[in-house]
Amino acid sequence: MRLINSNKHIVTTKIVLVVVLLITALPVLAQQACISSSITPTAPTDQYQQKNDGTVIDDKHRLMWKRCLEGKTGEMCETGELVMVNWGEALLWLSTQLNNDFAGYKDWRLPNIRELNTLTEMQCRSPAVNSSVFINAPAAHVWSSSPYTFPTDYSWYINFNDGSSTYDFRHNKKALWLVRDID
User: Fold this and answer.
1) CA distance readout (Å), 106 to 61, 65, 66, 99
2) pLDDT tens per residue across span 68-91
3) Which residues make beta-bridge pairs with 141?
4) SS3 of 34, please?
5) Domain range for residue 2?
6) Engineering a disulfide at 72: which of 77, 105, 164, 172 sits with its beta carbon 3.0 to 4.6 angstroms away?
7) pLDDT, tens digit, 9 for 90 and up, residues 43-58
């Protein structure tokens, strides 16, 4: 009987040890990973201007982005909860907000898939963005305004975990990253 209890104790101790190791490793596993030596940057820092009003200007594509995804605020986008909505709600997001004025501009919109894809940094994953420009950007799925042609109940989004452009059912919930034209 003592041998069985002793073996159970050893097994339980090993399981607890593995769980503790996994929990302590999670922050490391969740950090952004970049391979700068073999992949050319797709969103280099020098193409962006970080403004003090919570916006980022992409000089190459002539776009202004909100630094934080919708629902997140603060200098490092550390406050608030990420807004997750379906595609129909995403298209209506600004018209349903009582105050869509941000940084003195009222023409914020949902980007099309090509515009949204300009944010992806293919050197990196988890998230696949330039994290020195877009600090604390989550590795989230983010809707574009672009519908998928067939089937008609799908729309395009970016998976910012790996930077892939893909499509999904419009009723699934995803995050929002708003943009406006500079010119």
Assistant:
1) 20, 13, 12, 9
2) 999 999 999 999 999 999 999 999
3) 159
4) strand
5) 1-30
6) 77
7) 999 999 999 999 999 9
